């Protein structure tokens, strides 16, 4: 009764608000909020200088640079190719379009460990793809390039799936009007279509970026995991845990958590912008 | 204010045929690209997808059967693999129903009522998706581990959570937490509450309203959420890896078993076990594809009935 009296904005004949919201809040606190707060509370065991020392030590900073840099690069590549794939799937009809459309979600469905060993096998020096790249001087597996490949794989569906519905909903009148007014095909894409897609494109980009930042399973197999060179931040957390350095692991985790929360807020903002653009 | 992932596309959009199909040919020329541009774009997209999707998918199965059928069968029937299969199923069988009940409760509260703090709640429900799986495992170590909040108490009472099955289940519940909720919420919001209100006015009890009106309206959306939730539950690696302790035959799930085999250079066996999970992924995609259309129908029906 307490919940419905204090929170409900208007009276309703539907029952079950207290039960449903009570259950939701209880479960949310037990599974998510209390354990997450543990990470923040446990870092208070460190003094501020200790905390700063831990999260800015050279090996940790090298891992931030690597994780951020490759995530950003992978998200940019996914933004470009994601837009292209969404465009091709919505606008053109070709043999196997539906199968391709269904398979785009593979990175969501395929367990990351499977993706990890598979990509490593493919891009290693003797792999199906690696054997063509190695003679060109491009080593992929066990280098930062491999991390980029894994991050591109796991982030692939995000941009496609955020841009696709907007493109499907877009009225053809807009482009027809642009053509009637004398715009070239490229002009009507860059001046009419692209601005409409932009919020969704940025949302997909941010989602892919956020996912790549925290990714672990698909990367550790292909990365080589050399400290200072190809060691991602999540792996560093695990390394610290295995050395029973709980405070150190938690401090790095808190830095990553704060980053993810900022990104989550940014993504929420972008989605609100997308909805506004769509007039919903 | 929720960060709807692209996986929720059926609730977000109702598919329409390609736009160029509806316009006459003379207009089409002005609103579509020349044939060579079309071919170039399709070709580029397919090359990209081949390199990153199709070739990896094929190679899982190629590597799995490289050393023949006997090695394959031996790899997936040895006792440690069977134990891993069981543990993976156990974790999913516990995690999916828990998140299903939560998802329904959350969707009922959020979609059918107007209350203060709703957008904050929606953001909180999405939190597990933006947390790195490694951190998801870490926070349970901080709570239940030996040096954690309840570590000493658990030790004194001889309960084991971390490096044992309960920890694996908890980590799985965390990473799959939002799937059902975020699938149901937009669907139930779109459907509004008129039908439920009508049922109540006609004398139905709350539970009758829920079972006979609400649930049939969202059953495909619910199934869709369960399919995605299950796929993630069975495939989770990072979070489970932190809390598992990697005891062969006891606390190894299928993804962890793949890692152990791979690190021992038993590549054929590793890919054989991986092919099981890859098959699960393919089944997931097929089911998702079928159910997606039903969800769109559910959404369309709600749109025609409310307008």
Describe the protein's architecture and organization:
The complex is a heterodimer of chains A (280) and B (307). With 280 residues, chain A is mainly α. Helices cover 78% and strands 0% of the residues of chain A. Chain A is built from 14 helices and no strands. Chain A has helices spanning 2-7, 17-43, 48-55, 58-91, 97-103, 106-109, 112-123, 130-133, 144-169, 172-180, 185-214, 217-223, 233-242, 246-278. The longest helix of chain A is centred in the first third of the chain and has 34 residues, at 58-91. Chain A starts with a helix and ends with a helix. The relative contact order of chain A is 0.13. By secondary structure, chain B is an all-alpha fold. Chain B contains 15 helices and no strands. In chain B, helix 5 (79-112) packs antiparallel against helix 12. Chain B is globular. The two termini of chain B are 24 Å apart. Chains A and B meet through helix 2, helix 4, helix 5, helix 6 and helix 7 of A and helix 2, helix 3, helix 5, helix 6 and helix 7 of B.
Main beta sheet of chain B: none
Structural class of chain A: mainly alpha
Based on DSSP secondary structure assignment, what is the total number of beta strands of chain A?
0
Order of helices and strands of chain B: HHHHHHHHHHHHHHH
Q: How is the main sheet of chain A built?
A: none
Concise description?
The complex is a heterodimer of chains A (280) and B (307). Chain A is built from 14 helices and no strands.
Provide the fold topology.
The complex is a heterodimer of chains A (280) and B (307).
Chain A: H1 2-7, H2 17-43, H3 48-55, H4 58-91, H5 97-103, H6 106-109, H7 112-123, H8 130-133, H9 144-169, H10 172-180, H11 185-214, H12 217-223, H13 233-242, H14 246-278
Helix pairs in contact in A: 2-14, 4-9, 4-11, 7-9, 7-12, 9-11, 9-12, 10-11, 11-14, 13-14
Chain B: H1 9-12, H2 25-31, H3 35-64, H4 69-77, H5 79-112, H6 118-130, H7 133-144, H8 151-156, H9 165-175, H10 179-191, H11 194-201, H12 206-235, H13 238-244, H14 254-263, H15 267-306
Helix pairs in contact in B: 3-15, 4-15, 5-9, 5-10, 5-12, 7-9, 7-13, 9-13, 10-12, 11-12, 12-15, 14-15
């Amino acid at each position: 009764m307490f919940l419905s009296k204090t929170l409900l904005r208007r009276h309703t004949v539907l029952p079950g608000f207290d039960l449903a919201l009570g259950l939701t809040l209880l479960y949310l606190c037990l599974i998510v909020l209390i354990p997450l707060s543990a990470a923040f509370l446990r870092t208070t065991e460190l003094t501020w200088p200790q905390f700063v020392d831990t999260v800015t030590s050279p090996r940790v900073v090298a891992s931030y640079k690597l994780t951020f840099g490759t995530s950003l690069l992978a998200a940019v590549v996914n933004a470009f190719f994601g837009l292209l794939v969404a465009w091709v799937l919505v606008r053109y009809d070709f043999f196997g379009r539906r199968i391709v459309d269904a398979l785009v979600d593979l990175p969501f469905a395929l367990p990351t460990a499977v993706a990890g060993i598979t990509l490593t096998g493919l891009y290693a020096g003797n792999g199906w793809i690696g054997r063509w790249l190695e003679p060109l001087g491009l080593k992929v597996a066990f280098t930062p390039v491999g991390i980029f490949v894994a991050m591109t794989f796991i982030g692939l569906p995000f941009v496609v799936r955020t841009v696709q519905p907007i493109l499907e909903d877009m009225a053809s009148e807009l482009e027809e009007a642009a053509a009637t007014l004398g715009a070239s095909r490229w002009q009507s894409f860059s001046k009419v279509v692209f601005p409409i897609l932009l919020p969704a494109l940025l949302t997909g980009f941010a989602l892919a970026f956020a996912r790549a930042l925290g990714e672990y399973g698909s990367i550790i197999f292909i990365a080589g995991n050399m400290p200072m060179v190809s060691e991602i931040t999540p792996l560093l957390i695990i390394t610290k845990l295995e050395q029973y350095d709980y405070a150190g692991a938690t401090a790095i985790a808190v830095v990553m958590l704060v980053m993810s929360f900022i990104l989550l807020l940014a993504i929420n903002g972008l989605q609100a912008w997308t909805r506004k653009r769509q007039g919903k | 204010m929720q960060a709807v992932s692209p996986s929720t596309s059926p609730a977000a959009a109702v598919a329409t045929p390609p736009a160029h199909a509806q316009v006459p040919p003379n207009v089409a020329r002005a609103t579509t690209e020349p044939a060579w541009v079309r071919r170039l774009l399709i070709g580029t997209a397919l090359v990209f997808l081949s390199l990153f999707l199709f070739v990896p998918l094929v190679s899982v199965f190629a590597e799995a059967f490289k050393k023949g059928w006997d090695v394959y069968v031996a790899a997936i029937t040895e006792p440690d693999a069977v134990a891993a299969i069981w543990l993976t199923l156990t974790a999913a069988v516990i995690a999916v129903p828990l998140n299903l009940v939560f998802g329904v409760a959350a969707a009922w509260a959020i979609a059918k009522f107007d209350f203060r703090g709703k957008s904050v709640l929606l953001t909180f429900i999405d939190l597990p998706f933006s947390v790195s799986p490694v951190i998801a495992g870490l926070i349970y170590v901080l709570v239940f581990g030996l040096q954690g909040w309840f570590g000493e108490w658990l030790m004194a009472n001889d309960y084991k959570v971390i490096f044992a099955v309960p920890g694996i289940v908890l980590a799985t519940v965390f990473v799959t937490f939002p799937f059902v909720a975020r699938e149901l919420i937009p669907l139930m919001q779109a459907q509004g509450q008129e039908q439920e209100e009508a049922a109540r006015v006609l004398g139905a009890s709350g539970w009758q309203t829920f079972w006979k009106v609400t649930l049939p309206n969202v059953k495909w959306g619910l199934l869709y959420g369960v399919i995605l939730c299950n796929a993630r539950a069975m495939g989770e690696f990072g979070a489970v890896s932190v809390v598992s302790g990697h005891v062969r035959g006891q606390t190894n799930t299928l993804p962890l078993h793949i890692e152990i085999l791979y690190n021992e250079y038993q590549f054929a066996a590793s890919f054989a076990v991986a092919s099981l999970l890859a098959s699960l992924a393919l089944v997931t995609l097929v089911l998702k594809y079928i159910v997606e259309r039903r969800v769109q129908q559910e959404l369309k029906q709600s749109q025609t009935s409310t307008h």
